[in-house]
Specification:
Length: 162
């Protein structure tokens, strides 16, 4: 279902881009650049505490710690679906663009452990870090419409057999 939503979102963005440009194919110098930015980029930008426009590996680690603490409203060391939803609304600007709860809750047990939260955040850093230096520059957050990079293959925990 998420795949269909993502495909629909991309198709809608491309359609809007075509409509805004008059549907003409090709590139014109007076046409604005169309780009997409994921909601998690907002979070990573907020981790840049020294305002140097680069989110360092140390800032990412501190931000990841801070966000888990913020999300874990009852301080029990894990996130319930309601805690995640509240956190997503606050930090990610709502639940429409993701990352979604099941991106974090890979074993689908309705609990996001600290390990699951950290694994997902670290995986997203790897996806953005084009130059693989551990830091995130602003330019690494932007995906041009029609030129999105495929995500890097991540190692994800496997679900235990039933």
């Amino acid at each position: 279902m998420r795949f269909r939503f993502a495909v629909g979102l991309v198709c809608a963005a491309l359609t809007l881009g075509a409509c805004a440009s008059g549907g003409a194919s090709g590139s014109r110098s007076d046409e604005p650049i169309r780009a997409l930015m994921s909601a998690d980029a907002l979070m990573f930008v907020s981790f840049d505490t020294n305002a140097d426009l680069i989110t360092s590996a140390a800032e990412i680690d501190a931000g990841r710690e801070r966000e888990f603490t913020r999300a874990d409203a009852n301080s029990d060391g894990s996130l319930s679906p309601i805690e995640f939803q509240n956190w997503g609304n606050l930090v990610l600007g709502g639940g429409q663009l993701g990352p979604y709860r099941l991106d974090f809750d890979r074993n689908v047990d309705n609990t996001i452990t600290r390990e699951e939260f950290d694994t997902e955040i670290r995986g997203r850093v790897v996806d953005y870090d084009q130059d693989e230096n551990g830091d995130l520059a602003r330019s690494e957050f932007v995906r041009l419409v029609g030129q999105a990079r495929p995500p890097r293959r991540r190692i994800t925990p496997t679900m235990p057999p039933n």
